[in-house]
Amino acid sequence: MKSQKRNKSLLIGWDAADWNIINPMIEKGLMPTLSKLINSGSHGKIATLNPPLSPILWTSIATGKRAYDHGICGFTEVSADQKSVQAVRGTSRKAAAFWDIFDQHNIKTNVIGWWPSHPAEPINGTMVSNFYGMCNTPFGENWPMLQGTVYPENLESFMAELRLHPGELTPAMLQPFFPHSENLLSDNDEVLRSVMKVLAHACSIHNAATWLLENTEWDCTAVYYDAIDHFSHLAMKYHPPQLTGVSNEDFKNYHYIIEAAYRFHDMMLDRLLQLAGPDVNVILVSDHGFESGTNRMLSLPKQPAAPALEHSPYGVLVCSGPDFKANDKIYGSSLLDICPTLLHLYAIPKGEDMEGQVLMEAFRTNKAIVTIETHEQNKQTSAPKLKVGFDKAALKQLVEIGYLDDSVLGEKATAKTLLENDFYLAQSYLDGGKLNASIQLMEKVAVHQNAEVRHVLFLCKLYLAKADWDNFLRTLQKLEESDSSSVEIDFLKAQYHFATQNFHKALELFEKIGKSSRSSALYYLVGKTYLKLGVYESAEYYFNSSLSLNKDNAQNWTELAKLLIRKEKVEDALGLLLDSLEYIFKNPETHKLIGLCLMELKHNKDAANAFEVSLRQDQQQPEVIALLNELYKKKMGKPDLVRSIQKVEPKVIVSGLPRSGTSLIMQLLDAGGLPVYTDEKRKADTNNPNGYFEFESLTNPNSYFEVFKNNSVDAFKITYPLIQELPKQFSYQVIVIERNLQSVIFSQNKMKGSDVRALDFNLATGLNQIRAACDSWLHEQSNVKFLKLNYEDLLENPTQEINKICVFLEKELNQEKMLKCVDYNLNRSQH
Amino acid sequence: MAKDVKTTPIQFEITKEGSLGILALGAVAVSAWREFKRKNEEPKKK
Description:
- The complex is a heterodimer.
- By secondary structure, chain A is of the alpha/beta class.
- In chain A, about 45% of the residues lie in helices and about 10% in strands.
- In chain A, strand 3 and strand 4 (about 85) form a beta hairpin.
- Chain B is mostly helical.
- In chain B, about 55% of the residues lie in helices and about 0% in strands.
- The longest helix of chain B has 19 residues, at about 25-45.
């Protein structure tokens, strides 16, 4: 498929680049190239994803999807034969990256250094994998390049020569990093050696990128530099201002490293832009920021991926070029938006299965966004076979840069890797709003023999988030019996007391914790507790304290603003809220409060704009709609703009395998007074004497959206596996009825006119797989609440089970009439 | 070479020591620097 002629694009990744470092440097004139790029384009903060681990994040940037959809879940993975641990491979990605999609549209792409991209994939263009610059060989000796590093293979030997060995670096090249430490340059200083390694790697990538820009035909070039991240982990602790605990000598020797690193990146950027040419759309992005203030850490705990604790939630985004607006700001972007935005530059539709959005506000012209269901069916993968030695070298690399501990090379490595990746996947589920899926996974992780306290701690936090108090308290008890820190346990207990309205107990524990530690999260919760207790001065103090430690916490800003509004200091509140937009723009509550302040100050048009922004960010705010309507109707004389408030009830769905008892549940609901959706086309028969309660078109998923849109309160029967086709636009309460599989099969056979009682193994396996897939699907949906009932229990204890249905649905149904539907003998005979 | 791409002449002084500026210019500059070092070392070897 050919696309129309479009401008070229250059996508540049600077791992861990942070505005808190860049902005002061730009002000001092130390990053002139980036400064020019910003002024000629749009820029802003970009939100990272959890967990903030680079191979996961750069794959999310490339695919527009989260870890649970793209399949890259950590730094390492278990080999196909399950016998060893290997560095995560690009070919383990199960979602299409932008280069795959560009292939389908005949767009030539160069991809250099992407993480992960080893082994290099056979794309329409050139790919140089992320292990290109990896060097474990002494200078002067043969430096082999790992098999599969470059595609096409005929470029391999040439590209190998473009790599820069750390031993080639001269004192003159290193001097900007150590300007007042000439003695170091002849010493075997450990920090110096690390700087040399990181710098050489960056130069190798840069050499490959510049050569490809100049010597190949390309439509898109994407180059990833990991150097700022490595420099930051190495030397941010030495960056000014000097931290307590850093010696004067170390500060004197190392405090220029970060500045030199960023300046060098600016110089490399200049060259990239020069080679790319003037009519190229440039997107420069980082996957996360890096703590550079008072939250810097001098030492890290001993756990896998500990360096990620130094990452901060917002990276940098700059979009500049002929298709982008100049001198403008981009608000509320996420890593998931980069792929859709890049596709939009080439008029390629966004996949509806991509969570990210096209960043329309960055574009000069507002062309309609086209979507297609998915790009996935066209993804092709081929994994070239590699020599065994590859992974040991790669793992050693990751251990040396601190992202892995050396247990990956040990005996229990495979089990630990699987466990750790499940832990990261659970964090991804939580970040994507799939709390139940996260819990389901962590429940398996927490009982594993290799489980650690931090895994159980995370599970406990999940139960807290779900308000599952039984499991929370049970898990908390396990933590108390282990050697986890009392501060963490007290923090969990305090949050539990807060959630269960025991505010004084919560405060007691928060104050105890506050004696030995300080954190933005702690101060915020103390502020909330005082707010609940009506102690407003203390609440204000703690919200301000929390904000001083972390200005990115949107809730602090809104809580402080509410306190000011309460004191009738509306203008002060408005000023505070407008300041907060610099840090967080995507917060519907902030815009709602701005609207309220402006209404109070009689700036009605601006108030209406603020409410509209709030609604664009979250449509489910009936109170904001009401305020907006009041403005339009009564204060602005624009009754035509008034919109209706629709309270959206969740749809009630009855599901399970066919012949599990779904008709019985529908009969119960009908008897209880809940209207059920049926066309009665399939009449009652010996298999279902009381009726099927179905609607013909419900076996056709394409009809669901219209049926749900036009019927607000009925219950619908949708059996497995069609439950997975429920439209995402609605929320659901699903009652799942389960029955012994043998009984299900016999009942299905009987319905077909067969009296076979013997268990068909293949059929049983197939039905079991359907059931497992649908169960899994239910756990993963953030818009679904479900209740599982057992058919046999329903017959044995109908009163109890019927009560469960009513509690789940939060409806007062006629339980007496429902009970009469459960005819033990009739229903038993359906076996 | 890519079509319609002009290679901008690089103006810098190459010394054996090199500089961060050479590294920032990428493949062409690093190759030129390596060639310069090789040529300057050969007479000494002789």
